[in-house]
Amino acid sequence: MEQAKFVQNRIQSRAYRLVKPHEVIETVLEKQMQAWDVVVEPTLGSVCHADLRYFSGQRRAEALEKKLPMALIHEGIGIVKSSGTPTVKTGQRVVIVPNIQGYMLDGTDPMNCCESCRSGKGVNYCTRGRFLGSGTDGIAQSRLVFPAASAIPIPDEVPDEIAVLAELSSVSYQALHHVADSLKSAQVVVFGDGPVGYLAAAMLHHVYGVSQDRLTVFGAVPEKLAQFEFATRKLVQDYDFSKGERYDVALECTGGKFSESAINQAIEVLNPGGHLILMGVTEDRVPINTRDVLEKGITMRGSSRSSIHDFIPVLEAMRDVQCQETLRKLLPDERTQIQSAQDFAHVMEFAESNRGWKKILLNFKW
């Protein structure tokens, strides 16, 4: 498209910025709104383990030095306060897409961006893009200025507390769309009974139509595993992987110190020609059984982000009451009110020391 026109409009934003692990301050950021941008006031956010890795200092020292100070949070929704385009209207509820490609920041098109965007390899791999809360200021601020295309209107039937789960759900959708054709008949297994595993399994069931008899979840905590009512459930510590069922598609959603065992168990139970999708994040290198990967011809693919197109089918699925009931199991009984940097720091401290099963929702009061 033609280069968009520049608009002289400065926007000030109150931001809760992490300046070093465990230390959050309030500061004022000033941004330039351009013709293709919107200004959104974040209303509801959700804490991700990625946010906690920054807050607690678990990221590598060089990453922290490069990226801080920075406002955290990349899972969130908000209200449009100003719009430079008729496609997004002032007052609309929108989901915030945190993965913003370079050509969108410029107000142009993919052909004017990096090789990945020009070639169609995937906008998730744009070398000129920005990701909110990871290298650029995230949702923990009063006014976000970003391209209007990254503000996805929320359907009226979808309540705020469900819509705020769209980002993490869209990551699962994106990871799975590469094997969408095989999901029509494949036996699928998910490793991990945390929020990532739960939402991946929920997308498999509600978006891709994988029924309970074709969907198995391995978990380590009986209370967590019991929540996966739409799947066949198995405790990983009681299962004999050398003699059990075999699967066509496996998702590793554990991350951290359990990545090694989950990845290798997935390799063991996959059929020849199977697909292994890695979604769990760890800061450590993980040894894997390459012999079986080679002998079985297993395809491995990593996925941790999503783009605009992945949000649309997710929000459509969220219109369904049954899908909403499934997702509500991840929601806390209460939202945490955030009115200051101190409030934000306190809730992050709580999240770090109480890594429970349910998500922590941040109700921003600006």
Automatic annotation (TrEMBL):
The keyword tRNA processing does not apply. Signal peptide: none annotated. Belongs to the zinc-containing alcohol dehydrogenase family. It comes from the Bacteria. Its cofactor is Zn(2+). Residues 37-156 form the Alcohol dehydrogenase-like N-terminal domain. It comes from Paenibacillus violae. This is Alcohol dehydrogenase catalytic domain-containing protein.
